Every structure is written in C-alpha cells, then in structure tokens.
Amino acid sequence: MRSGIVRYLPVMSSILRWWQDAAMSRSTLRPTAVALAVALAIAGCGSSTPSPSPSPTAVAVASPSPSPSPSPSPSPSPSPSPEVAYADLDGLPVDPAIAHRLPIAVSIDDARAARPQSGFNAASIVYQAPADGYETRYMFVYQSGDAADVGPVRSSRLYLVQWAAEYRAAFAHYGGDRQTLTWIKEKSAGLITNVDALFGSAAAFHRISSRPKPHNAYTSTDDLRAMAARRGGPAELDPTIHRRPFVDESPTSARAASQTIRIPYRTNVVTYDYDRGANVYLRSVDGKAQTDPADGKRVATRNVVVLFQSFRIDVKIEPGHARPVIGSIGKGDAWVFREGRLTKGTWVKEDVGATTRLLDASGQEIPLVRGNTFIQVVPTGTKVAVGS
Questions:
Q1: Of 228 and 21, which is predicted with more confidence?
Q2: How far apart are CA 194 and CA 28, in angstroms?
Q3: What average pLDDT score do residues 119-146 get?
Q4: 294-298 long-range contacts, Cβ below 8 Å, gap at least 24?
C-alpha cells in the first residue's frame, strides 16, 4: 500500500501544482472540477494498476460554459408625428380633418339686450358692421374652432350674406329683410348653403329662457354643421377659393411695446389694447373688458382689420323699414393692425363671390399673423384713433 502511494506521489504533486496555477484564474474553474481531480487521485492510490495521469486538457473539460448574453430588449419604435395642416381661414396648424372643412357663418345680434354674446373666441373671423337703427351686427365665421353656445342669432342683411359668400360658407340666420331673402333665393346658388331658422332649418336653433325675444335665439357649431349637411352643403371649402396669406408671429423683441385702437360706432365704442407678451389685442366695448360666456375667457384677437366702406340708410328697399346699405363691393381704405403696428392699405372686393383682399401701397397682399381676425367695418370718414 505504501509503495502504491509512493508510486502516485508524482501524480498528486502534479495535481497540486496545477491547483496553484488555477488559483490565479479561478473564474475558469468550478469547485466541482477540483473535487473531481482530487477524487480521481485518491481512487488511483487504492489501485494496483496505475491510471494515466490526468492531463490539463482533461481537467479543462470541467470549466464552466460561458453565461449566455442577455438578449437586448427591442428599442421602441418612435411614434409617427401626427399630420398637421394649416386652416384656411386663420392659418393655424390643426388636424387635417378640420383644416379645410366648410366654414359656418352666423348673423349675431348686438343690441344692448343681446350682450354678452357667446361664441367669439372659437371663431376664425369676426365681422362687426353698422346695422338697423345705427346699432351694429356681428357675423362669426367658424372653421377649425367649435362653440357649444353661439348667439343670440338674428336676421341677415345683404352685406353679411355677401361676406359669407367669400368663404362659400353655410350661412345661419333668423330670416332677413326682403332684399336679402330675395337675393338668397335667386342668386346665392353655389355661393352659400342657406341655414335659415325660419325656412327649413329650425331644428338647428333653440330659445333660452333667460332673455326676451328676439334676443334669445341660440345654436351651436355642431348643430349648424349637421343642418348644413342636411341642406346639401359640401363637406369642405372649395380649394379654388382664394386664401389670405399668413405669416408666423415675430419674436417678442421684434413686436411693438404697446398699441391702442379706438373705433367709434353710433351705439357703442370698441377698443383694443395690444398685449405684447401674448401677441394679441384685448377687446373692450364701451370701456368694459369683453368676456365670452361660451368659454369664460377675455375676447382677444391676433389681427384687427378696419375697412372703411360707404354706409347709408334706405327707406325704399322695404316699405315701412329703414334698412342699412353698405358698399362692400369695390375698393376703399383699409387699416391692418398686427403685433402692435399699423399698415395702411386698400381693400378690394371685385364681386360678390370674391375674397376681400388687403393690399399694401405696392399692391401686394398684406399677410396676417396666424390666428383669428376681427374685421371692423366702419362708415367712410369714421375717426379711428390709434395710440401707443
């Protein structure tokens, strides 16, 4: 037995030397491999027939397999950018589904009993012009914006429906004077979609109880769009219709510090105060800040346009009534206010269906800043005051 052990001392010595070498790189050897090598040596000591010495190659088989590398997690694909289009009437980037939809124009009451009116802030364009009894009347024009409350809705006048014709709009109103209704019946085909509460479209309107007639007729843009579709109106604005040009707003440092505009009418005075930081004109009527009940916010606009047009009262158009007549077709002076600055130019409207273009001294169109526009129509010679 002793001689057997002596005979295997070289083998055991070899294993020990191997173990010392392996200690320098234990990451390539598992404890079980060492135990296996020692067990083989001990087993060999009890045998009369020597077993072959384990070679380093044989031990290396017991080295661990490399750990599998974790599979890389797939990187999330970037979400596609939503499509953006520019709305026809205010030049703002919007969902393509509403950028070119049919404009909706609404005749709005401005008697004192009708104030405050609802729906200003959702409109792309707002007109204000003299009307019967030297009061004024508004026309709200909607495209990309919507309002759940719009009103009070009143009867139409010829100049209102002819402005609506510029946009091939659905025109919402509560009847009108004889001249206007005759024009709608005989000449409006292809120029407007008639949505008259007194002629086949009553379902789009309702009366509220908090105001007396006739200052309590209201509607919504959703109801008007549904009715316009029933009346055969197109889904979108004709792409051949002329669009006004728009530009992006300037950096704050490039805008004027301040500006005030005072526009007098017979029965009210409209003022605008330019807010440089917000880049809007804040609107007031008779010295009181104007708020839109539809959204509870201050009435404000990006652009103010003053059109100087002829105005007279005619008692022959409809016997027993004094009806307003405005020279909305032709040309005249125009003042365009943007970013606290005034550009004086000329308005031109060639015919009923043509867009009222705003031209500078060189005959080029004056671009508006992207956003809503208030168009103030005043009789020629009106003293509009501008301050800083």
A1: 228
A2: 88
A3: 96
A4: 294/118, 294/119, 294/120, 294/121, 294/122, 294/147, 294/148, 294/149, 294/150, 295/121, 295/122, 295/147, 297/121
What pLDDT shows up at residue 6? 39
Task: Confirm if 385 and 374 have CB atoms less than 8 A apart.
Answer: no
Give the containing element (helix H, strand E) for 234.
none
In this structure, what token pair is assigned to residue 319? 């016997």
Q: Are 98 and 66 in contact (CB under 8 A)?
A: no
Cβ density class 125-137: b for 16+ within 10 Å, e for less: bbbbbbbbeebbb
Burial of 8 (0-12, 13-18, 19+ CB in 10 A): buried
Cα distance between residue 250 and residue 266, in whole Å: 36
Alpha helices in 133-204 (DSSP H): 158-165, 178-187
DSSP lists the bridge partners of residue 107 as: 139
- Dihedral sign (CA 22, 27, 31, 36): negative
Structure tokens at 23: 């200690």
**Mind listing the pLDDT tens digit for each residue in 362-378?**
999 999 999 999 999 99
